[in-house]
């Protein structure tokens, strides 16, 4: 069949499309943009000017001639519902005899009339299309593109489109390898901008501009020269104990030389490493990690430019994230005076401050435009711990980092990107949500998955330019795209997370979201990432006992996901309790024990391990055994407060409790006849429960049935 196709094609070309000749060296380079409605510019009001081929022409200039051969609704599949090879635009593209062809087909192949029936023909059909173009000009440069995104609002997204598009992307990758053509990714650059796909398929003019810029760079190899991720700057701390993973962009084929200098390598010549930028402009290097300490100098050299980073340190790096209780600055806490003592060049801070905090105001239109461009954080630079820098730094992050510095005697770097009021879903990458909870992405400001306060605050901020697709930091995936992706897979030891206030309305939804968050970040930064989070404190909000218990139950110590307790440090009416130093200390204890081998420390709060019922002469007694503790006591040396029993009829009974070593005993009142009791501890929004271990770490509030731990 392939041979017959080639013969027929040759006859068609000779019979109907005479060759076009140009004087050598004078004719512009002809670029044929072949594709479907996205190439054509469907739904664009001024497509002749703003469709991606038109913008590409402007970018390439007069040395190139760009022709648009897009056909709306076209499929790559020859037996699809509208095969491109049967369209007039295809015949015109062949006659054009381009020097360069850019093919973007496959979006319409996700139609259930197409992919389920003919998927096995996709790769052979694509190869035949490429062969037909090469027959018109054997020297033609051919680029094929991964397809642009299809959003969750598409009516067939979950019934097949989501999964079929992923299969098509893999098939396109296979075609590029087999046919020896260059692959262009039109999916990834547009993926963080769902507002540029208002109908979930067709890009706006802004989206078309992004596509044109990607194609321009692929054709010319111009990616703006040598560039580094924004998190790379003088004064940065790189994670010790593993090869340093350095990356960036440069012009395609550009050689990049990286030199590491410092007293512990070779102060005169240093160590030099070489690599070459790929066709897509990306480059990466893995170099042996030098000894902890510094300062070192990293120099990045390419033909386009040289970048030198001074005062680089090798040590321990932690990301500190979440919402306002993590963002709360040291100068806002009861330990604000400690800032004046800060003077440590090896405790370094990369503080990503939002350009606008999410107060209850209408943001200016100019800022709303920048939100749509994903410009939310102010530019940041690594800086040393000084009284000035520390005062405006996350109090929890600083207390944690200082304790690590004192214990480890190596440089410590903290990256802070917490945002007041931010919900969990804003921090999860889009692909993870599309695969596991796509409903939360749809119409998020009228979506019951999302806390009403979060939606209302966003609407207040967006008041001056409010559209259904307007972006906001609280929108699902937004903070991942603006606060995590720019970190460019930066090497981390772990994460400190303090968040939940903006998801506390729906425990069940958060129980889906939180594991997605941890898996999302482990996929991005590395599976060995430690993830330590702070349980919500005490406050008079009715859903918080259930939420705190849910947080307790979602720990996964074997996977490096653990919690520290803060219910003893709350305030009945203030969601921002000001005593943050104990939180930083508890997080540091956990890290020092788990990540740095300080085995002598009692790092964890006592936690319930076993419940049993014992008969005595006085009656029946519940015996509760706790782990991670030698002796239980109370924080105020008063009798134990906070225990109660719930019988099978749902009636609540206050009870007394007494500690004996690592066991708490609760006499069961004779009025309770139930043989299946629920035990609750500290089960109030704001609790004065006082059970602690001998190191002072508090027992978490909890609820458990009598038979759950047996």
UniProtKB/TrEMBL annotation:
Transmembrane segments: none
Species, as recorded: Porphyromonas catoniae F0037
Gene3D superfamilies: Immunoglobulins, SGNH hydrolase
Keywords, ordered alphabetically: Hydrolase, Protease, Signal, Thiol protease, Virulence
Listed name of the protein: GDSL-like protein
Domain SGNH hydrolase-type esterase: 33-209
InterPro entries: Ig-like_fold, SASA, SGNH_hydro, SGNH_hydro_sf, SIAE
GO biological process: carbohydrate metabolic process; proteolysis
Superkingdom of origin: Bacteria
Occurrences of domain Sialate O-acetylesterase (ranges): 491-588
Signal peptide: 1-23
Family: Belongs to the peptidase C25 family.
GO MF annotation, one: sialate O-acetylesterase activity
């Amino acid at each position: 069949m392939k041979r017959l196709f080639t013969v027929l094609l040759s006859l068609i070309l000779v019979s109907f499309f005479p060759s076009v000749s140009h004087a050598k060296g004078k004719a512009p380079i002809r670029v044929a943009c072949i594709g479907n409605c996205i190439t054509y510019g469907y739904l664009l009001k001024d497509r002749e000017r703003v469709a991606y081929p038109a913008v590409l022409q402007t970018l390439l200039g007069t040395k190139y001639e760009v022709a648009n051969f897009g056909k709306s609704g076209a499929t790559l599949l020859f037996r699809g519902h509208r095969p491109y090879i049967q369209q007039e635009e295809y015949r015109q593209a062949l006659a054009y005899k381009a020097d360069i062809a850019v093919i973007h087909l496959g979006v319409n192949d996700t139609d259930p009339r197409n992919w389920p029936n003919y998927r096995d023909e996709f790769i052979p059909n694509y190869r035949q299309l490429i062969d037909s173009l090469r027959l018109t000009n054997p020297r033609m440069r051919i680029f094929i593109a991964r397809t642009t995104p299809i959003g969750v609002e598409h009516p067939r997204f979950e019934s097949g489109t989501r999964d079929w598009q992923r299969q098509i992307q893999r098939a396109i990758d296979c075609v590029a390898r087999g046919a020896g053509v260059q692959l262009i990714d039109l999916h990834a650059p547009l993926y963080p901008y769902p507002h540029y796909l208002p109908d979930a398929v067709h890009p706006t003019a802004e989206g078309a501009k992004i596509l044109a810029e990607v194609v321009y760079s692929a054709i010319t190899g111009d990616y703006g020269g040598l560039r580094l991720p924004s998190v790379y700057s003088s004064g940065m701390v790189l994670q010790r104990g593993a090869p340093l993973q350095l990356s960036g962009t440069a012009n395609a084929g550009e050689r990049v030389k990286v030199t590491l200098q410092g007293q512990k390598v070779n102060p005169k010549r240093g160590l030099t490493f070489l690599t070459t930028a790929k066709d897509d402009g990306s480059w990466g290097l893995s170099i042996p990690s030098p000894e902890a300490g510094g300062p070192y100098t990293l120099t990045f050299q390419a033909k386009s430019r040289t970048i030198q980073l001074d005062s680089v340190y090798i040590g321990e790096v932690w990301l500190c994230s979440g919402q306002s209780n993590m963002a709360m600055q040291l100068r806002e806490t009861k330990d604000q005076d400690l800032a004046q003592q800060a003077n440590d060049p090896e405790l370094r801070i990369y503080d990503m401050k939002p350009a606008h905090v999410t107060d209850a105001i209408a943001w200016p239109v100019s800022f709303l435009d920048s939100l749509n461009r994903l410009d939310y954080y102010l530019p940041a630079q690594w800086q040393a711990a000084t009284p000035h820098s520390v005062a405006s730094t996350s109090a929890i992050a600083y207390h944690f980092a200082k304790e690590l510095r004192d214990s480890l005697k190596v440089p410590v770097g903290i990256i802070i990107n917490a945002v007041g009021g931010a919900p969990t879903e804003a921090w999860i990458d889009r692909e993870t949500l599309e695969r596991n909870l796509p409903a939360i992405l749809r119409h998020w400001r009228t979506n019951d998955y999302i806390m009403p306060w979060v939606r209302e605050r966003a609407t207040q901020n967006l008041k001056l330019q409010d559209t259904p697709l307007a972006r906001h930091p609280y929108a699902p995936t937004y903070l991942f795209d603006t606060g995590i992706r720019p970190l460019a897979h930066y090497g981390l030891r772990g994460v400190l997370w303090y968040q939940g206030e903006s998801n506390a309305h729906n425990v069940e939804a958060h129980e889906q979201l939180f594991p997605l968050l941890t898996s999302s970040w482990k996929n991005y930064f590395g599976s060995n990432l430690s993830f330590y989070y702070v349980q919500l404190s005490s406050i008079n909000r009715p859903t918080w006992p259930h939420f705190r218990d849910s947080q307790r139950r979602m720990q996964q110590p074997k996977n490096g996901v653990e919690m520290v307790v803060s219910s003893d440090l709350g305030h009945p009416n203030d969601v921002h309790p000001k005593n943050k130093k104990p939180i930083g200390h508890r997080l540091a204890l956990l890290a020092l024990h788990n990540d740095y081998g300080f085995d002598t420390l009692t790092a964890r709060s006592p936690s319930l391990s076993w419940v049993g019922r014992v008969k005595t002469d006085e009656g029946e007694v519940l015996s509760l055994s706790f782990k991670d503790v030698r002796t239980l006591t109370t924080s105020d040396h008063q009798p134990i407060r906070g225990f109660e029993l719930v019988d099978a009829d749902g009636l609540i009974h206050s009870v007394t409790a007494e500690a004996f070593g690592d066991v708490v005993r609760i006499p069961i009142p004779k009025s309770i006849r139930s043989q299946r009791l629920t035990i609750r501890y500290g089960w109030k929004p704001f609790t004065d429960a006082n059970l602690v271990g001998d190191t002072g770490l508090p027992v978490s509030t909890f609820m458990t049935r009598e038979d759950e731990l047996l």
